[in-house]
Amino acid sequence: VCLERGWREFNSETGDQWNLWWRTSGFSVNHHRNLYAWQVKRTYINHIPKGSAICRKDNLVRYLRCMRKVYGSIYDFSPHGYNLPLEYTKLAAECSRNGRPFSSKSDAEDKLLEEKPIWICKPVAQSQGRGIFLFRKLSELSYDSNTIVQRYIEKPLLIGGYKFDLRLYVCIPSYHPVTIYMYKEGLARFGTDKFSLNDLRNPFRHLTNCSINKLGPGYTEMKDRIGSGCKWTLRQLRRYFQQAGISDWLLWQRISSLVILTVLSHVNQIPPTVNCFEFFGFDVLIDSSLRPWLLEVNLSPALSNDCDADRSVKKPMLHDMFDLLGLPLYNTGLSVFDIWLDESDENNTEEDKVERTKDALTNSLPVLNAADRWRRKHRKMSARQVRSRSSSAAHAPIRTVSATIPSNFRFNNFSKLLTFLIVEIIHLPKSNYNLPKNKPNYETNKHLLTKMFQSIEDLKKIANSKKWGNGRDWNCATSSEGGWIRIWPIVVEPLNKSNTSNVKQMVSTVIKYTKTAKDLVKNHPTASECQLNEFLQQEMKMSGEIWIPPV
Ligand code: ADP
Q1: Rounded to the nearest whole angstrom, what is the distance from the C-alpha of residue 267 to the centroid of ligand 1?
Q2: Partners of 150 in beta bridges
Q3: Is the pLDDT of residue 57 over 70?
Q4: CB 169 less than 6 A from any atom of ligand 1
Q5: How do residues 416-431 score in pLDDT, each as one tens digit?
Q6: Residue 149 pLDDT more than 80?
Q7: Residue 338 confidence class, pLDDT cut points 50, 70, 90
Q8: Residue owning the nearest CA to atom 10 of ligand 1
Q9: Using a 6 Å cutoff on CB, does residue 270 contact ligand 1?
């Protein structure tokens, strides 16, 4: 995606500067500390300090439990869980409250055992389904590291007899003000063996991780309704719902609320930041009563393309996300850093600068064209999909481009040009968690800064303005960008109360949102999706769109 946008991969040997540093793991405090300094150079990183806290399974249990205590049942969207070893006795007490001996052999007891709840044990430090197992009897539980034990959702919604969960993409460019976007498309990930509670040890029945299921015997088989493989797009899922006569509008609104409430659970821990963002993968399971359950939040959702569903979701999503964040609007192949240096060089005449800029823009045209080609292709594809739709065609998502080089742009408007040009990218292989050999030179940054700014007060002003180095101001966050829909704030009112970090107020707005959505469905059982959207927008005085996957 980065290359398609004309970016260059960071090369430490050529002494390149960089603009985006994308890591699968978090960044050290030092990196964040330097972000204010980097801001003027428009450099960005893909994690927010402490943003990863909800991505640890044990933290998530803790945060959501805490919110449940304060705000009540609105937080009942995560299966009840215990952190082990710390809460082993609580778990044991709950197991015994169910009135069962922990290990029994007799037939009568075995029958009773079937009625006992099932638990799922998940090691905290593992991912992709590794180390997970199910059990009914406490005596079957064994663990040698920090682990969570969670109530197993025993009645998931099944398609063709197969269990599935959802992978939803969420982007948070700012916690102060809280700004949350969710992508319209996502993935449904299926187990590859028919679901049944008879065999708790069969991972292809109970776990929906693609990493596990693609190794199973059922992966390539043509499965009932599902077909081969183990993934659908949300569009495919919604079409299935339509065919099966399942009204799913409320489900998506509850999912949207669940995401906001989860983010709110840790918002107070996070300092104000600029030039950094989080890109989360939310895993949600739907049960047979169409109730969504949050399973976990992933810090670095997989971006690999294993199948057609991946390809049709992930690439457009990333392009749209970079547009949303203003990471290059249109890449030009120009180096901002070079220009910046030129700008600060007093010996450079204005004419020199204009000439250089003209050259750079001419050189960058092939890249602009490449980016445009990609967009045209994508638009054509969406148009085709839209045409193939019948009833809801009028509400097809329209790709928007956040900005482009304006038609009235003048070459001598040098400082404005900087806003539109972004260049090099640092791209580390997934496995490489170390710093590149040539670390970005903070000393040089400091030197540059003192050269460019009169005093440290200027820097502070930048930090307090909460604007990103490219001008993105999350106090007036756009309602959508491509397929990214702003789900929070529901109403953008700059510097209004609703934009401040008052969690209590925000939770009560989400409660109202969920209740209004429920009431609308109840009071207008025959209303179309568009009508429900309109009603909800009116009731909530929303300034933006309603998040709902395409159909
Ligand atoms: P990992 O980080 O290892 O992927 P998850 O929490 O996502 O761990 O769990 C892996 C899979 O196990 C999920 O995709 C889901 O299919 C299943 N699963 C996890 N927790 C539950 C639960 N409480 N109830 C039912 N299924 C669950």
Answers
A1: 25
A2: 81, 120
A3: yes
A4: no
A5: 333 223 333 333 333 3
A6: yes
A7: very low
A8: 129
A9: no
129 C-alpha to center of ligand 1: Å? Answer: 7
Regarding the beta carbon of 53 and ligand 1, being less than 6 Å apart is answered no
Residue 523 resides in a domain:
no
**pTM for the structure as a whole:** 0.78
Q: How far does the centroid of ligand 1 lie from the alpha carbon of residue 134, in Å? A: 10
Task: Tell me, yes or no, whether 509 lies in a domain.
Answer: no
Out of 285, 286, 294, give the residue to mutate to test ligand 1, the one with the largest number of ligand atoms within 8 Å of its CB: 285
More confident residue, 354 or 22: 22
Number of domains in the chain: 1
Q: Which residue has the tokens 């009135």?
A: 99
- Count other C-beta atoms under 10 Å from residue 437's C-beta: 7
Question: Which residue is listed with tokens 């006569």?
Answer: 245
Q: Flag whether 103 is in a domain.
A: no
Distance of CA 206 from the midpoint of ligand 1 (Å): 8
Q: Say yes or no to pLDDT of 551 above 90.
A: yes
Residue 446 counted as domain residue: no
| Cα separation, 465 vs 471, whole angstroms | 10
Least confident of 101-110, 232-241, 244-253, 443-452: 443-452
Whether 282 has a pLDDT exceeding 50, the answer reads yes
Ligand 1 lined by 209 (C-beta under 6 Å): yes
Half-sphere exposure (CA, 13 Å, Cβ side) for 139? Answer: 7
**Ligand 1 pocket check for 120: Cβ under 6 Å:** yes
Q: What is the CA radius of gyration of the chain?
A: 25
pLDDT of residue 515: 98
**What is the arithmetic mean of pLDDT over 215-241?**
94
Whole-number pLDDT of residue 327:
81
For residue 208, the ligand 1 atom closest to its alpha carbon is 16
- Give pLDDT, residue 450: 46
End-to-end CA distance of the chain: 25
Report the CATH number at residue 315: 3.30.470.20
Domain that holds residue 166: 1-77+158-192+220-332+472-500
205, 283, 291, best to mutate for ligand 1 pocket (most atoms within 8 Å of CB): 283
Query: Can you give the pLDDT at residue 509?
Result: 96
Q: What is the dihedral of CA 225, 230, 231, 235, to 10 degrees?
A: 10
Task: Please identify, by atom number, the ligand 1 atom nearest to the C-alpha of residue 132.
Answer: 3
Hey, what are 354's tokens? 């204009």
Mutate which of 295, 296, 297, 298 for ligand 1? The one with the most ligand atoms within 8 Å of its CB, which is 295
Is the bond preceding residue 101 a cis peptide, omega within 30 degrees? Answer: no
Q: Which two tokens stand for residue 524?
A: 């207008």
pLDDT at 27: 82
